[in-house]
Automatic annotation (TrEMBL):
Organism: Vitreoscilla massiliensis
Domain Impact N-terminal: 21-125
Any matching Pfam family: Impact_N
Similarity remark: Belongs to the IMPACT family.
Designated name of the protein: YigZ family protein
Coiled coil spans: none
Amino acid sequence: MESTTHITTIAAPTVAEHKAKGSRFLAYAYPITQAEDLKPLLQALHDEHHKAVHWCYAYRLGHEGTQFRANDDGEPSGSAGMPILRQIDSAGLTDVVVIVVRYFGGTLLGVPGLIQAYKQATVLALQAASRLDKPILQSHRLQFAYEKMSEVMRLIKRCEGQIVEQHMDMQVALCVAVPLVHAAAFTQQIQDWHWLQTGAEDE
């Protein structure tokens, strides 16, 4: 799922279709960064496919992959969400959700048939996706006097950091996300600056 400095996700949404005994399984794969991204995607597919019978999904999030969910949406327990999740994991991906929309074709597939159908639809959607390596970021909160701004900005640029938020008053407060590959150098420098207040956490 990850290297020591990067995660692998998909670059853009994809869709694929699998058919089994008359039922249609439409698999939609999306890159996401938080669980809250799921709800509008799910609602859009409910609106688009209002005659479908199930909207099953699974996602895996984060560089450690500890945040995940699998939902069978009324299918027999373990027959839809987990097969989808296993294919996300098998592909070595994170920050991904796959939603599979099912149109019932009139013939019951049984649990083994459902597992295979949801698995295959997910495989096809993920195979169609371009993979994207994203750097794992470490967040730092910095606070310092305004006259030190240019010095701090040079360090952020050198370490390929991104300013996530900033507040400027008598003191400057920044939240900076730095790629893990540069985190040690960044941390060492800001620790050497005794005039700077800081905190750090992995994202």
